[in-house]
Specification:
Number of helices: 14
Radius of gyration: 26 Å
Mean pLDDT: 94
Strand order of the largest sheet: 17-16-13-14-15-12-18
Largest sheet: 7 strands, antiparallel
Number of domains: 2
CATH topology of the largest domain: FAD/NAD(P)-binding domain
Helix content: 25-40%
Strand content: 15-25%
Distance between the termini: 27 Å
Length: 417
């Protein structure tokens, strides 16, 4: 190669890339740029003094890295905002790729029975150390405490304006600043012409101030079904009764899928709980009668035909005024009818929410209509990419939100057009 050709080749390949945001998506995007374009200079800007703070606290400090679901259409179902649109993203980097990536870097992972994947160490610091080590090894330049106030185009480049230092020019910019609880947090991107979908909480527990079931705080039902009344929203999974109402995966899923609708209702609505994972009330009625015939002299409070916690069983009996010391053969068909309905359609009033702090997630952000999800590039501006919660994508709990961050960061880092 002639010297002139070599100079031209270098000018084409050695570019300067800014990644804004030191969270999961930002780190992965910066690493991806260096993996795909080793000669590019990458600067990672974080406005605070800490990186990966959400990784640190997630999963109770264990970091739920991803989920074992490898079927891409099923994986997409975990995203109330995003859904099928994410297929092209996951075809490029999915849960299996995430596991391979971390394991190739020496991080041992384990899958729990509900499909959540954690580091074997049970410590989120393992994931943080891995990402930081890769960043150092690939020579990504980390800039902490750098607050970017605006970005503007300058020819074919991007000019970044900082609060406390002169502006800098970059060939490409990847924005991975995470979600913002308020619309104002997106003003600097709105000025670029992007449509911002209003941010709202999307993972929260249900407050039930007037419901006596709160007295059962600590009770867990392993498989319940939850339906938000007068909507199409139905979920299932473990349910936890708390001192303020209800939580657990079944409730958090319902909050994610109902995020916008429940906000419009000011978080006042009714829910129906199916405690026994059986929808046929006639079948349940027959089971109750059969159980009564087999255990006529046993007290109904002491012996139950369904796998639900004792305290909950007693609570439900009292709710329809069946004394717990009554014998099975003394209950009667009318009460069995009531009980079979209650077990499948137990109604509660929700009034308010409590943010699920460890997994704080917002829906909203940059409209997906303005992003090419095959490349994560803005459809409005060339060489501008997005990754992570800054876009209008969010998921239920179980490692899916981190997966969207890893996938988005990886694909954005390719800098494809």
């Amino acid at each position: 190669m002639h010297e002139l050709e070599l100079d031209l080749h270098c000018s084409m390949t050695n570019k300067k890339v800014a990644v804004i945001g030191g969270g999961a998506a930002g780190f992965f995007a910066a690493l991806s740029v260096k993996e795909h374009h080793p000669n590019h200079e990458v600067l990672l800007f974080e406005k605070t003094s800490k990186v990966l703070s959400k990784v640190k606290v997630s999963g109770g400090g264990r970091c739920n890295v991803t989920n074992s679901c490898s079927d891409i259409p099923v994986l997409c179902d975990a995203y109330p905002r995003g859904g099928k649109k994410l297929r092209s993203l996951f075809h490029q980097f999915n849960t299996t790729d995430t596991v391979k990536w971390f394991e190739n870097k020496g991080v041992a992972l384990k899958t729990e029975k509900d499909g959540r994947i954690f580091p074997v160490s049970n410590n989120s610091q393992t994931i943080i150390d891995c990402l930081v080590s890769e960043m150092v090894g690939l020579n990504v330049n980390l800039k902490l405490g750098q607050n970017i106030e605006k970005i503007e185009t300058e020819g074919e480049q991007w000019n970044l304006f900082f609060k406390d230092m002169p502006s800098l020019l970059f060939d490409s910019v990847i924005i991975a600043t995470g979600g913002s609880p308020k619309l104002k947090g997106f003003d600097w991107l709105h000025k670029l012409g992007h449509t911002i979908i209003e941010p709202l909480p999307s993972l929260f527990t249900f407050n039930m101030p007037k419901e006596p079931i709160k007295e059962l705080m600590g009770v867990v039902v392993e498989q319940a079904r939850v339906k938000i009344k007068d909507t199409k929203i139905q979920t299932e999974g473990p349910l936890l009764i708390t001192h303020w109402g209800m939580s657990g995966p079944a409730i958090l899923k319902a909050s994610a899928f109902g995020a916008r609708e429940l906000s419009q209702r000011n978080y006042k609505f009714e829910i129906l709980i199916n405690w026994v994972d059986e929808t046929n009330t006639e079948f349940l009625f027959e089971e109750l009668q059969k159980f009564s015939q087999e255990n006529p002299q046993k007290r109904i409070g002491n012996l139950k035909p369904f796998l639900i916690p004792n305290r909950l069983w007693e609570f439900l009996l009292e709710k329809i005024k069946i004394p717990t010391d009554r014998k099975w053969n003394e209950v009667g068909k009318k009460k069995f009818r009531q009980l079979s309905t209650l077990l499948t359609q137990d109604q509660y009033s929700v009034s308010g929410k409590t943010t699920f702090k460890e997994e704080f997630v917002t829906c909203g952000g940059i409209s997906l209509n303005e992003i090419n999800l095959k490349t994560m590039q803005s459809k409005l501006h060339s060489n501008l990419y997005f990754a992570g919660e800054i876009i209008d994508v969010d998921a239920i709990t179980g490692g899916y939100n981190f997966q969207a961050a890893w996938s988005g960061g990886f694909v954005a880092g390719k800098l494809d057009h």
